[in-house]
Amino acid sequence: MKSLQNDRGAGVGYSVAAYLLWGILPVYWKLLQHVPPVQILAHRILWAFVFLLSLLLVTGKFRGFWSETRQIARQPHKLAAVCVAAIILNLNWGTYIWAVNNNHIVQTSLGYYINPLVSVLLGILILKERLSPWQLVAFILAAVGVFSLTLQFGAFPWVAIVLALTFGFYGLFKKMVDIGSVTGLTLETLLTCSFALPYLFYVSNIGASQFGFNLSSTSLLLMGAGAVTATPLVLFTAGAKRLPLFVIGFLQYISPTISLLLGVLVYHEPFTRGHLLSFAVIWVGLLLFSLSRTRPFIRIEEKIVQPTTTSSF
Question: How many domains does the chain have?
């Protein structure tokens, strides 16, 4: 029992550290605000691959990665799913970097608040999963909140929707392929390096590159993009293995909450009472969604849907 408690304690520690790092990630991209978002994305892909490959070599897991990669290469449907997942992931990364450096941090936080509900919707539509009554209510509340925010922003919150949809579809394809997180991300960055490297050579040749081997602060930050991308993932993977899903469900809201606070309090993005009310509706929906599969809510659900018994003659 004590060993289980220690394991879960470590799991909480790893997961909280991962979500804290993801939450403060906007600060890192803001330091690179003078660099075009596409260049930041290309360097993020390149240095994430270098970091992950080094991690596999240091931990002695490179053979396993290479073996798994060869198995995927022999299965066209899996290889196609990995390729699509890589494209979707980089669309997510690129949108996030652009949004942060164009003062849309509040929208990025909204995207990751509603992402779990998008994942549920994709599960229903594509994987034919069933939605519980509590989850249905949670989904409706979140939809009302998003609609209200659309009215508050005066425009469709496309950044939030793109982030939620891309991360939702990324998770869907990862589930279909069923490979390890670190292995999968290493393979995905390897595949997209085929686009990132030619682009970086091109901007270097035309004199538009912000990167140099003179170890300037900008160059070091671009190289560090690999570590800040991969480290939270490694921590999250370690934590997720040790924790029940409902605990992960609660902890995942640490990240967008920190981003929201950064956007409002540090970078002074607009956030009115109307925004607060809309977010409150979404938060209630998310809280209900997180609690929907806990024992008390399941018992209430069973009492509501339990058919009334009638006498038979």
Answer: 1
